[in-house]
Amino acid sequence: xxxxxxxxxxxxxxxxxxxxxxxxxxxxxxxLALPVTGSAAAASGWLGGSGPGPVLLQSLAMLxxxxxxxxxxxxxxxxxxxxxxxYRESHAVPGFGLGxxxxxxxxxxxxxxxxxxxxxxxSRDTGTAGDYAGTVASTLLVLAPAALAEEVLFRGVPLVTxxxxxxxxxxxxxxxx
Length: 177
Prior knowledge:
This protein has helices at residues 7-37, 40-47, 52-77, 92-116, 129-155, 157-166, 168-176. It has 177 residues and is mainly alpha-helical. It has one domain (7-86, 124-176). The relative contact order is 0.15.
């Protein structure tokens, strides 16, 4: 386990980690989008879109970039272990299940509030159960890597490094900002 870091070191390495991950993510995503779209302008436009292709490509590029800089900065420079980063927990499966349930409950509460307060409403359509299952599966296939990428980017090296210096509560606030 790495020692406590000075405030300047914790903040500096956390910012460097996030910036380097984002820069490398952009370079990887652009490099992969270029042959798909045929030109730099088209690649830039495509990556700026919100379709499933660009979202999935950028998510996978971010996961790759985060893994690289977690190893390089987190493990090699700062001396963090996988245990320090909470990547080897005996409670990973129950924790994942709890996270899924908590996310589903939060989404359900959000939908209920939108319906009651915001005037949102559900409407009938002609979709089958298979249509709905396919839509849910494709949505999860695209959005799950994006959510995972965001979590490992901010809750990995930056959160652990800042928590060592300022405490977990303060670190969560700093990472959220």
